[in-house]
């Protein structure tokens, strides 16, 4: 791979996993065909996630009708699908109708009945938290004149039904974990409750019906990316986990195909040039030694001999001195000597008084 390209893309598909090691599509490891270096930002460009997580994971003894337990198959039920499943499994012991304008179920039967949701999933999905007994519709101001229910026994969900499984699913890639992704939970004894999706990489809104595929795109959904102050030096694999809001692995129920595309922004670090051959190194050392050799010492200054004209001038000067001495100084000297050699005057005579 050309490391000088600062933008790179990677495609990861769960079908490329080793199914012997990773039988489930919710947890697997894939290895990149070429490592990516010096990563400073990672974007989630697109993702494909199946919405095949069941909202009924255990349908055994789902509800009780007049003391008789009713079981249904696990599945991702719609409101009408769940009503039909319960009616069929109970032998039409009651009639269930989903009131889409209220978000509740209306239960009815010609005879009085009692219905009880036995599991947490059932309580959430049919909107009943406790055992509920029917009452004559004729006693209700809403249904007393209703031609369908006016003569029947009825009961209604006490709260809006919730058929959703995961509003969001979370893409957790071990190599990308960062403190920039946080979770919000209640405090229990001074700490947040339970497992968390904190540090996961991507959040995918599951705004599609059960049994369909969610196709996430950054252009139509929203941008998701992580930036790193210190680059990821080298990335050669992706350790993938698909989890729910509680940090539990998703169960795709056999539809294990999911995929996503990543965009990487990298820093190009120009490599050092290769070392020169040994022969060139030796030649360079010799040239450097010659260039940096100290200059040769300066020769001692030569003694300058007197020239001919200097000697001639000295001879002339000596002749002049000699001539001056002979002609001037010596006669004066002789006259002085003669003057000094003249007879001295007689000494004075002494007189007697």
* Helical stretch tally: 4
> Which descriptor suits the 3D outline?
rod-shaped
Strand proportion:
25-35%
What is the chain-wise order of helices and strands?
EEEEHEEEHEEEEEEEEEEHH
Overall SS class: alpha+beta
**Poorly predicted runs:** none
Q: How far from one another are the termini?
A: 154 Å
Largest sheet, in brief, is: 7 strands, antiparallel
Overall strand count: 17
Rg, alpha carbons: 57 Å
Question: If you average the pLDDT, what whole number results?
Answer: 88
- Approximate helicity band: 10-25%
Give a brief description.
The protein is built from 4 helices and 17 strands. The protein is of the alpha+beta class and 353 residues long.
Structure description:
- A hairpin with a 2-residue loop joins strand 3 and strand 4.
- Among the domains are: 7-53 and 165-266; 63-156, no CATH class.
- It has helices at 79-89, 120-126, 278-291, 308-341; strands spanning 7-13, 27-50, 63-65, 68-70, 95-99, 104-109, 114-117, 132-133, 135-136, 153-156, 168-173, 187-188, 191-192, 202-205, 213-217, 225-243, 259-266.
- It starts with 6 loop residues before the first strand and ends in a 12-residue tail after the last helix.
- It is α+β, with helices and mostly antiparallel strands.
- The longest helix is centred in the C-terminal third of the chain and has 34 residues, at 308-341.
- Strands 1, 2, 11, 14, 15, 16 and 17 form a 7-stranded antiparallel β-sheet that branches.
- The protein contains 4 helices and 17 strands.
- Helices cover 19% and strands 30% of the residues.
